[in-house]
Amino acid sequence: MIKPLVVGLALLCLTASNISRADEYRRFETRPGVTVSAIVVAPKVPRAVAILFSGGRGVIGVRPEGTIRYASNFLVASRDRFARNGIVAVVVDAPSDRINEGLEGGFRESAAHADDIRHVIQALRRDYKLPLWLVGTSRGSTSVANAGIRLQDAPPDGLVLTSSISRENRRGGNLLDMKLSEIRVPTLVAHHLEDECWVTPYDGAVEIEDALTGAGRAELMAFDGGEQSGNPCKPFSHHGFLGQRDAVIRTIADWIHANATF
After folding, report:
1. DSSP-assigned beta bridge partners for residue 221
2. If DSSP codes are grouped into helix, strand and coil, which group holds residue 153?
3. What is the domain extent for residue 138?
4. pLDDT 10s digits, 91-149
5. How many domains does the chain have?
6. How far, in Å, CA of 59 to CA of 146, rounded?
7. Is 256 helix (H, G, I), strand (E, B) or coil?
8. At what angle do helices 111-127 and 140-150 cross, to 10 degrees?
9. Residue 77 is part of a domain; what is its CATH number?
């Protein structure tokens, strides 16, 4: 295992003036009769594209007027931060046929889910001739790993797995049950050293990084500091990088830019 880089809170402030527009609504046609809604936030001079996958049920309530009903998730709340760091942020909702039940019952690990992501990737590659990465947090990392494994014929340029599931639980989604060795693109594992959510302990992140034997480059980046408030599995905790999201997104963005091979 590569010794993890431990990142603190030092960060150069960036202003919202780097963003050209905010909260643009998009709807992607995926499987027959199925669409995926998204919010796009783009910088003035984009260097990469990141599709962001929230945790939990994966239902964030994207609305055509450009708002998001459930926006507290770490990645959803950080969409402007990605844009300020030169990355087009595309926050995806659950597909239209899963809005009621969410991405439960193994859907995050399914071929159908990967197929939805494939179509979103294809559409964004037509729009942006830029490196395209998938970024997930908590159960969203299960979606990202699934796509990395299944989309071998047309893969994203890289993956970022944050606060990932690594323990057995009734809702599934354990990355360590997946064929992580089949991922063939650069992959960053980002985790808080003091993540107290019982399905996402830090030592599980170590195991995930160790399992990424085919990724070409895999790195574990550990964060410390920040704040802890309330449920340790919810966004307002170390699990959601509370109190240090600017630093976390800046560091992730730097890693994406440094590993872009487009």
Report:
1. 5, 190
2. coil
3. 5-258
4. 999 999 999 999 988 999 999 999 999 999 999 999 999 999 999 999 999 999 999 99
5. 1
6. 18
7. helix
8. 80
9. 3.40.50.1820
**DSSP readout, 1-12?**
-PPPEEE-S---
Integer Cα distance of 228 and 240 in angstroms: 9
Half-sphere exposure of 4 (CA within 13 A, CB side): 22
What pLDDT does 3 receive?
43
- Look at residue 24 and give its three-state secondary structure: strand
Which residue(s) pair with 87 in the sheet? 48
For residue 111, with 0-12 CB atoms within 10 Å meaning exposed, 13-18 middle and 19 or more buried, which class applies?
exposed
Mean pLDDT over the full length of the chain: 92
Instruction: Decide: helix, strand or coil at residue 245.
Output: helix
- Say what the pLDDT of residue 11 is: 38
Q: 202-255: per-residue pLDDT in tens?
A: 999 999 999 999 998 999 999 999 998 889 999 999 999 999 999 999 999 999
Nearest by Cα to 130 from 42, 212, 251, 31: 42
Unique residue bearing structure tokens 């985790």: 191
225 and 243 Cβ atoms separated by less than 8 Å: yes
Distance CA 120, CA 127 (A): 11
